[in-house]
Batch of 2 targets.
Target 1
Amino acid sequence: MSPAGPQVLEADGIQVAFAGRQVLASIYLRVQTGQIVGLLGRNGSGKSVLLQTIFGTRTVADASVRVNGRRVVPAFRQPGLLNYLPQEPLLPPSLTLRQAARLLGVDLGAATARFPELRTQFDCRIGELSGGSARLLQTLLLLHADTAFSLFDEPFSGVMPVHVETLADEMQRLKQRKGLLLTDHRHAEVLPLCDVVYLLHHGRLLKLEGNVKEALRDYGYLAH
Amino acid sequence: MVFVFTWLRAVLLFYRSIAPFMLGISGLILAAVLLPALHEGWGEGLLPGLLLTKLATAPVVWYLSEQLRPGQYWFYFNLGVSRRRLWSGVVALDGLLFLGGVLAMRAGVA
């Protein structure tokens, strides 16, 4: 975390429509260093589009992304500000994990300290790993990278339960120095992690307060 | 300075992924146009035209690359390198390699 105090990432003014359907319309999102913020929503609700717009790789007219009130568009070009784990593979197929970690400035040994079984795979290319291990390692690389914020699109996808629990612990530990914005359908794991929960519902971003599970049921995200 | 170093490493890494196309085109131009021209003695003065031809093929490789591997940029974005910076570096590097190939071929034939 910055010595000057917490950093605040805010995004608003984001309007996106596909084939005449308004996907994102009324958006205000705030993430602070020291927080884990959950972004939930049904399939096709625009969660990935929102994350990519904040990251700055999707150009949206009038989108405003700010850090401590300063406009940062495209945010990914600001050194040390944020990184993003997409749903698809992050690493180029020719790169080993060790090489990727070096480029990202991550100490791979420290990043995998809680996952000793992964240490034999440092010299593997991403395509040589199982889907779950690849996902976990890519998440760990970005989680341990020296950025103020990390945006994770389905970080738990394909990861086995014992690793999900440890990864969640790692996120809790590392939020001391960064802000995390994550979206994942594994709500049972995501909800206990989050300090703030948003739901994307019909293009509007709703901040859920009070009984979050009940609100998720009311909006049709959960059945029971 | 740190960014320039990261950018250069990103460009080299990205170039590896498209090198078969880029170097293949270079090889084709050199073998099919420059080599016969040098042997027949009219190769002098061809360089600007060849270089322009080579540069003109870059958009084709870019288009194919976008269509075949749309998700290839995420790692580079996470290094803070945009598409434009990546491709400008790749085109410059490829142009230099092509130029090197032309000079080597000229020296070899001469």
Target 2
Amino acid sequence: MNSIAGTFPRLLRYTLEHRRTLVTAIILLLLATAADVAGPLLIKHFIDDYLMPNQWSVNGIALILLGYIGAALAAAWLGYRQSLLWNHIAQQVVRTLRHQIFSRVVSLPLKRFDYTPTGSLISRITNDTESVKELFVGVLGVYIQNIVRVVGIFIAMALLNWRLMLVCLLFVPAVILVMYCYRRLSTPVFQRARELLSDINARMNEMIQGVTVIQLFRQEQRFARQYAATAQDHFETRRRTMQMDALLLRPMVDLLHLSTLAGLLYLFGLNALDSAGELIEVGVIYAFLSYLGRFTEPLIEMTQRLNLFQQAIVSASRVFAWIDEQPEQMPAQNPAASSHGDIEFDGVRFSYDGVKPVLKDIRFRIAAGQFIGIVGHTGSGKSTIASLLMRFYSPQQGRILLDGQDLAQLSQQALRARFAIVQQDSFVLAASVADNIDIGRGLSRADIEAASKAVGLHVHVQKLPQGYDTVLDEKGQSLSVGQRQLLSLARAMAGKPQVLVLDEATANVDSETEALVQQSLLKLKGSITLIVIAHRLSTITQADRILVMHQGEIMQQGSHRMLLAEEGLYRHLHELQTTQVVEVGG
Amino acid sequence: MWLFGQLRWYFRLQWRRYSIAMVLLSLVALLNLLPPWISGRVVDAVAAGTLSMDQLLRQLALILLVAAFVYVFRYLWRLSLYSASYQLGALLRRRFYEHLLRQPPAFFQRHKTGDLMARATSDVNAVEMFAGEAMLAMFDGVLTGVVVLCVLLFGIDWRLTLVALLPWPLMAYWFWRINTELHAGFVSAQEQFSVLNDRAQESITGIRMVKAYGLEQRAIASFDAAALAASDANMRVARSEAKYDPVIFLTVGSSFLLAIACGAWLIHRGELSVGQLTSFTLYLGFLIWPMFAYGWLLNLLERGVVAYRRLNEVMETAPDIADTGTWNIAPDATLHWDVREFRYPGHEQIVLANFTGRLQSGHSLGIVGATGSGKSTFVRLLLRQYEHPQAHFRFDDIPLRELKLESLRRHIVVVPQESFLFSTTIAANIALGNPDATPDAIAQAARLANVHDDILAFPDGYDTLVGEKGITLSGGQKQRLAIARALLMDAAILVLDDALSAVDVATEQQILQHLREARRARTTIIICHRLTAVEQADHIVVLSHGQPTEQGRHHALLAADGWYAQMYRYQQIEQAVEEGR
């Protein structure tokens, strides 16, 4: 994991893209601070120049009054604007980060997703970037604003009386020392409290999942005892954190604040008693007392934000780890324009985990325009063939050739132009039917309708209220399961691919839909290379050739008729699917 | 105020801590009045030229003394008040947990895990906040406000106070408004955040589709749109939040201005001193907190009420199945059942009907049938997870409801379809029902369940962690661990509820052979889809749509050539296909 040293400057560099906003924010902040500290200064002048000497000059007082009101309004407005600007920068940075991590993640090779739990990956994209947002809004923004404010107050104090200012300045190292101690003492306890909390939640969650088992095994009391012990532990740890807060945070800062007040009054009184020196005016002490109240709050706020900082850095380094991953390497080379759709598997070996082989030396050829069916039991490796064809994964050994050219050499664009896939689960966008077929490829309406007709979807679309412009919802409720599968098929055909792969596309559909899909396939037969991976044999009885797979090997191949004639796996599969076990009684 | 009433029991329970906190808070509020007062006196003495070194030192010593006391008191009230509120959180969580532990499966079908978790976390937090922060805001807010007002009105000058306080109600109003706005903003920001989550989830889980169609750009665009909406919602929150400062600034500023103006006039007339004016402006600063406290209190109260209601909703559901029985089951009792009709609560469909039978101690029973034939329902009724007036189960002569639940559950051990493993060691998972089992006993159970060798192959053997922080087991390994867990209980009746579905036929046969040897005089009920598992049973029942259609021993059923026989042949071919034949 990246260290703070690397991660933090890298995060800061993101703000440089918003240089102008940053500069504006800083200028507004400086102005706001100036207006802010001007108030007590003006009152000081009023007290010392008019009130104490009993001088009531209307002009002078009016000027001070106007100045005061003006400064207050300016400080309020400028302060508001600049704080929004910091927020704006923070939001922009987080959007950039989110965009970067998300676009990097979707461009990673599929195998990167095999062993990463989806939940934790989503958490990187959302929760961790959210925590980085806290860093910008809650830590950086607050720090810059508060530091400028504190410095501004000290400058104003120095202008009034630098010796009194020095007394107040002592306050700062004292606070920093206290905060240092606080961090040293509290970090491990806070850590422990967080761990206990997640333990509590994990226990609760696990109990809900496994409650039946707990009851069946009569372990309610033991689980309740364990939970109570953890809850008590958590309570005590939190109490310790609270004790530390109470010892070292606000009460301590207030103690220091009052001590500084005493120091100020002491110097002030001493000065008045020692008539030899320059007299400190009453107005000055008034201004100091007002300032004193104003810089304790920012200091407290800054110390309380430090925890966020650490969390955010950890989160940011996790986000960067993903952003820094290598995207899938896409060859740029395009194949010769004249391609037909000949496919050859040449000694392909593949394994998902590098241990358990899924495909063992697969060899077959498909001539352009042929209809090939691939069948086999679960785990036979038949779907892996589709994944390799779509280049979701690359074979560890051997080659897959398209018109004699290695698939690995094809550019992503060329691959997608030539191959289309229909998967088991149809995928419907919350958009119109036409958009769902087009999916951003910019096809003409004629092409869309042609594809729709080719697969037999057209008649169904015409029954929809607005035809091709009917907006579907994401769960596709306006379409039946079968129609959704036809939609997927139309989508695939609309790209005019040379090779169409159906990966268990009929696994979840009723026999009526299957018949529809089958008809579509027959229509397409001959014009396009068809590779149909099916669990149901009925889908592929018309295929030119059927490959029967078992445990990563091709056990049998031939036409439906040929395969049925020989004793073996295909015939047993066929028997299984045609045997009706009658339901009695029902 | 409803919530105060609801939580009265707790305030009464913790009255000591709350009283201590209130006394200390009052002391702090009073002591805090001193430093500004002293400052004013010093200023006056300087202005009048009457200050003496002695007097100065005495005043300063007083300030330091006050500071020290305030520090100690502040520490102590936090300790009492927050201990009380944290304790409430811990207590509620525990009660919630224990309550859930007593609920039957039907309860967990009504309440989703996520929802229960939300109640156990954020709702408990909201109530806890009410018992801590809200009590503080209410008590200290009122107290500080009243005390400071009194000092201003009666200690300094009532005219000055009235004038200077003119802008303050505005501040309270604005605080309340911003707080409400902020709350709404947080809710919408939270919603946008979950939309963002959904978008990420959609694309990541559908990554194959995204890649197959080159939808990356589209997915990125839709994610970016969600990110934009989220950042807009966050900006709205920021805009509300940013209003606090100007509101404080303007009201406090104008109040100061009015105080100085009015004070100057009074000083001019000789009715007020500069020192008093200084103290006065210092006190004004104390009023910001009470103004804030009211808005905050309203908010915490609102959230606390909603949260407490949600907690009560769950806490007030009594378990559907009452543990009212008094009898124990005799070890060799015969089980009789007579289910005339059973449907799940709230459902029309009859899932089990006309099913009558008996099972003698030491015998084995097989129940087979298609999915949805009512096999698992039989087990649920037997365990009394559901009840129905038309479904009767009894051991010898004692009906289920007259048995102690404890005795029933001691008598029967079930290996469910979905075996659940806890995230702890493998040994602890096997010893779930018998935490004191020796390692030898655990290993013996694992051997019987054919999982011992698998376990030894794991990095830490029996001490290997499973679940989220440990290794992931295959479905078959999970099922065999669950069987080992059940065998360790050595109960009179063992029920395998489709518990062998994920192991292969050879392993299944080995486990069944072990069971027959180890549980010679015990009763076993095997519910399954694969008929090979019941071949050796003393009696087999075929259920179809909740009704028994065929009964008898394996060979008799084969000879009858009904569903059982057909299914048996079908599964023989299935087996051949699985083996690649």
